[in-house]
Amino acid sequence: MDYRREDTMFSQYKYWKPFISQYDPCPPIRVKSFSTPPQLYMGFQPPGLPQYPTPREALRSGTLWPQLFSPYPNPQKGGMKNE
């Protein structure tokens, strides 16, 4: 796997170039990507981290804390262009 160094340190999105064989039956995907959750980049959860003001907002985002929310966009639909 060929990881691009500039994206692996401070971005939630990681990219790699998989091996492409000349015998693959399908058209190749030249660059693949995946996203990592924001809590991986926090050493610990600081005390007093602000929470969403309403339970509805917390349920909609899937976390109690806005700093830990990640939308996980679909890279094939171009959701990661303006990161």
Q: Can you characterise this structure?
A:
- By secondary structure, the protein is of the alpha+beta class.
- The chain has helices spanning 5-8, 55-61; strands at residues 2-3, 13-17, 32-35.
- It has a three-stranded antiparallel sheet with strand order 1-2-3.
- The protein is elongated, with a radius of gyration of 17 Å.
- 0% of the residues are buried.
Helix and strand layout, with pairings?
Layout: E1 2-3, H1 5-8, E2 13-17, E3 32-35, H2 55-61
Instruction: Give me the strand/helix succession.
Output: EHEEH
Radius of gyration, taken over Cα atoms and rounded to an integer in Å: 17 Å
Give start-end ranges of low-pLDDT stretches.
Answer: 1-8
Helical content class: 10-25%
The major β-sheet equals: 3 strands, antiparallel
Mean pLDDT: 78
Strands, total number: 3
Number of helical segments? 2
Distance between the termini: 23 Å
Q: Strand order across the biggest sheet?
A: 1-2-3
Offer a few descriptive terms.
single chain; 83 residues; alpha+beta; 3-stranded antiparallel beta sheet; elongated; disordered N terminus
Task: Please outline what is shown here.
The chain is an alpha+beta fold. Helices cover 13% and strands 13% of the residues.
